[in-house]
Amino acid sequence: MATLGPYYLGPDTAHPAHGIYYGDCVRGMAKIPDGAVDIVLTSPPYNVGLNYTGFDDNASDGEFKAFNRRWLTEAYRVMRDTGRAYVVVGDKMLWWFKDLAEQIGWTYVQLLTWCKPNMAGGAAISGDWDHLTEQILLFRKGKRTPMLNGEGVNTHNWFVETAPQSNFNGHQRKRHPAQWPLGLCLKLLARTPGSVVLDPFAGSGQGLLAAKLLGRQYLGFELSLSVAIEARDYLRNTQPPLPMAIPEQLSLEAIA
Ligand SMILES: C[S@@+](CC[C@H](N)C(=O)[O-])C[C@H]1O[C@@H](n2cnc3c(N)ncnc32)[C@H](O)[C@@H]1O
User: Which amino acids bring their CB within 6 angstroms of ligand 1?
Assistant: First the structure.
């Protein structure tokens, strides 16, 4: 069924033209005009056998790389020339993902790190070291444009943000196996200029919610129907103002 998509899951009251679509992101992005998106904020599956609903996270190496090439190529086409992409990847993907993106035309900018303080000291370490970080690759399409800066804005290339857990409440309650903290998404987007945010792998919808709360337009795809519906409802039911303190977003004119 998912191969027939994308299916628009209904308007969001605050942004009738934007929202989340159920279906494969490569097919979905094919319907977006060239240069319509300012920011990609996303995390593709890592292909590590995670227990997703309606999605097999165990592809062969070749299939997985070919799939990443397809979605990164579409994301590049729909990106405005001034656009930036944040892609959260697993550490084993990191080493080939950057090269793949550069082959497509993306310019590599920087490696950012999300540190998860609450994951320490939990389950017994199964490898050599515990995995308490995630890597965020930052790419841009064309010429560099200034970032947004404000008083108290986070400019470090690392972010200490508690990972969602099932025993937490509110935005930090874990509803999806690979859920970002909302605070991480808010910090990334608050510094990044551009009005249209795309997440091809929307999952719980945290990245899209951050876009909405910051007054940006948002567009997402999700392959699992139940996950997409839950994200749609989460997005609909959460309205600004922001649920947490976030540095003021200044316009480019204000910092020029
Ligand atoms: C790593 S998770 C993203 C989690 C998300 N960042 C969050 O905070 O909840 C990847 C998501 O992509 C979805 N997915 C996998 N393949 C997809 C595809 N081809 N098109 C759209 N979504 C896909 C999975 O169902 C999963 O929900």
Answer: 24-25, 43, 45, 52, 55, 176, 178-180, 200-201, 203-204, 206-207, 221-224, 227
Distance 44 CA to ligand 1 centre (A): 6
pLDDT along the chain (256 residues), means of 10: 50 63 91 92 90 78 95 97 96 94 98 89 70 94 90 86 92 92 94 94 96 90 92 86 51 37
Sequence ranges of the domains in the chain: 2-240
- What pTM value is reported for the model? 0.90
Are 141 and 107 spatial neighbours (Cβ–Cβ below 8 Å)? Answer: yes
Q: Which of 249, 240, 233 is nearest to 22 (CA)?
A: 233
State the CATH architecture for 2-240.
3-Layer(aba) Sandwich (3.40)
CB 9 within 8 A of CB 19: yes
